[in-house]
Every structure is written in structure tokens, then in C-alpha cells.
Amino acid sequence: MFSKSYQLLPQRDSSGLPRTPGLFVDRDGFTRSSYHKGLSFDNMPNVSNDDFTDTSQGWLSWICNLIVTFLVYICTFLTFPISGWFVLKTVPNYQRIVVFRLGRVCPPKGPGIVLVLPFIDQWQRVDLRTRAFNIPPCQVSTQDGGVLAVGADIQFRIWNPVMSVISVQDLNASTRMTAQNALTHSLSKKTVREIQTERVKLGEYLGMDINEMTRHWGLEVDRVELTLGSLVKAPDDGPCGSLIMPPSVPGLEGLTGPIQQLAMHFLGNSGSLQHKQEDCLTFMDELSSAPQTAVATPVSVEELLDEVKLLLSETLVRQVGACFQFNISSEDGRHHSYYVDLSQGSGAAGAGSLCTEPDVTLSMSDSDLLAMFRGELRPFAAYTSSRLKIQGDIKTAMKLEELIKLLKK
Questions:
Q1: What DSSP character marks residue 215?
Q2: For the sheet containing 335-342, what is the strand order?
Q3: What is the pTM of this model?
Q4: C-alpha distances in angstroms, 176 versus 69, 149, 189, 214?
Q5: What's CA 184's distance to the chain center, in Å?
Q6: pLDDT tens digits for 105-148?
Q7: Can you state the angle between helices 400-408 and 366-374, rounded to 10 degrees?
Q8: DSSP letter at 119?
Q9: In what order do the strands lie in the sheet with 121-127?
Q10: Helix or strand or coil: residue 329?
């Protein structure tokens, strides 16, 4: 009974009997060698080569589609003054419309005025403009045993609207997941020194790797820029030698490598000037870790807000020219909202939300907010270390440095 060995069930019909394609399938397309591969793209047209002919459609199905389409055309023509509001679509130059007529994909339509038939056409707009997203800094284990926080800013665009619709369900989520996996996989084969010194070259290679995986989706990655965060774990001693680290800058102690040089260039040379001034001063108290100031530092957000109100002026409004919304979370779990409007007049500041849409929304804790306005924490360093979340333009958010400088004075 148990003498025979176990055998797998056949995955395909191997009976050898002649197959009948059925009523709605073309007999030639059914007997081709690539049929019944088990793939989801077997019956899809070769849209990558602009070939939208469906060879799996039988002659009877083709005749039925032709009759139904002809009847819909007649009904649309007879009711044209009314149906024109529903069947005519305006497509701008940066968009295309992908139409599925009776379930079968058609060539993309647009730009201009496009005719979409009722009842039998399902259509979807596709934006061809360049999009961008960022991968938040994630910890990557390098080849030399180090752990480095690395993120990326990625720009991509759709070059084939039909493939972007029929090949993937959620294009943005799939692209983000693919880019993050490619980032961690490619950088895990590099050392910390190579990542810090060859950041631009690694970004180009990463873009080519992502394009290789997403070209079947009809999109193309234009630019990949790596953003280096803090060095979580120093690499083991190896043949690469010790790392060349730039001098420490106040508020940027958690940053290393080229990212600190970028921050120094972006925020100005205030950090280096402070070092020079500290080296030249000989009358400072050596027992104190910081120079003594006569101005009392604020201990709460409300006191800080009162000091900000005293510094508001038309000159500051001309320098900044933006309004900011602060969403502050305290240690006891409460959330408060504050605003600083430096877009018009002499400026305004207070508790609550703005009546208009703010240019930048900043979310952080109350301790980090006090440290940032005291000059102990730079906005750029808080952003790269995920202590500050910014919604809006980052360059506009960094204009808060002007207000921080006035508070320090």
C-alpha cells in the first residue's frame, strides 16, 4: 500500500487531449507557445512598444465589441447637446488619459479635447510631471561594522502612462518601498568612509538600480540625492583607516561627514566665528562651561512667546516674509499650538492657530523648541535628527535663524 513513493500532482493539464479555445478566444492566440505561462501579463498587449493589439480576443468577441461601440456612438451623436457635457474631457499638456473600452486598454489620449464614450469607457488621468518624495533617515549597517543613518530625496516621473496604470496598483507606495529596499541593500555593501566620500556617485548608482526595477512600471527616476545623518555606531578598525571628521559645530554635534559641511555652508559660518571668538577671549570664567549672559533665559513656551513679541518689527518681516505654525507636545502628553506671523505688517505671535494657511508647520517638543530658540539646537540639526518635523519648504523653515539670532542678542 505504501510501497509507491509520493509524487507531486501535475500543475498543468498533461492529458494530451486537444484543447478547445472556446467561443470568445482566438484559436491562434490560444495555441501560441507563450500561452498559459501562469503570469498575469500573458493576455496584456505589448504597450511598452506601443502595440495595443490584443491577440487573445476571438472573432465573435471582436464583432460584439464593434456592435456595442457603434450603438454607443449613435446614442452619443443623437443626444449630443446634452451628452457633450459628459463625454468631452479637457486634458492639459502634462496629463494623459488612459481609457479601458469594454475592459480592454486603448492608446493614451491627450492633450486637448478627448472623447470618452459613456457606459463602455472607464478612464483614469495620469500626471506626467516630475514628482518627489523623501526616504526618512534609517539605520544602515555598513560593510565595516558601522551603523549610519542614511536617507534619500528621490525625483521621478512617468514616461508611459498606460504601463503605470496596468502594471502596478499603487505606484507611489510601490516606488517608495522599492527605493527604500534598494537603498538599504546597496549601502550595506559599502563602508562608512565610502558612503561619506562618494555620496554623489552612490546616488547615481542607486538611481540606476531603482530604474532597473521600476522600468516595467512606466516610470523613470531622474535624481537621487543621499542625505547622511548621524553616525550611530563607529566602524570597526580595518584597512580603510580612521575617518576624517570635521570639527564640531554648536547644535550640530550629532552630524558627521559631508552633512555637517553642508549644514555649515547652509547656516553660514556662525559656528566657526564663535570658535574663533572663544579662542581669542581670555577673560572668560574657566569654571563655567558657557559664557555668562545677563539676559534671563525663558523657562516656558509662554515666556519665550513674550520675548518674541518684543522683537517683532517690519525689518524682521522683510527678512523672513513667512508665517509659521508650531505644534508643540509637552512631557505630560498635552499638545499646544502657537503661531509666528512674519509675512505682513510688523508681525504677530500668539497661542492658537492662524486664520490663514501657514507657509511652514513645525512639530516638536517644548524642550526642543526652547533649546532651538536659545541657540542650543540648530533647526537643521533638529530636522536631520528627526526631533523636528517640517511640513512645507525647508528653506523657508530655516529662516527662523534670523529670529533666533535676535533672541540670542
A1: G
A2: 348-351, 335-342, 322-329, 360-365, 389-392
A3: 0.48
A4: 39, 18, 21, 11
A5: 16
A6: 889 998 999 999 999 999 999 999 999 999 998 899 998 888 98
A7: 70
A8: T
A9: 104-105, 95-101, 121-127
A10: strand
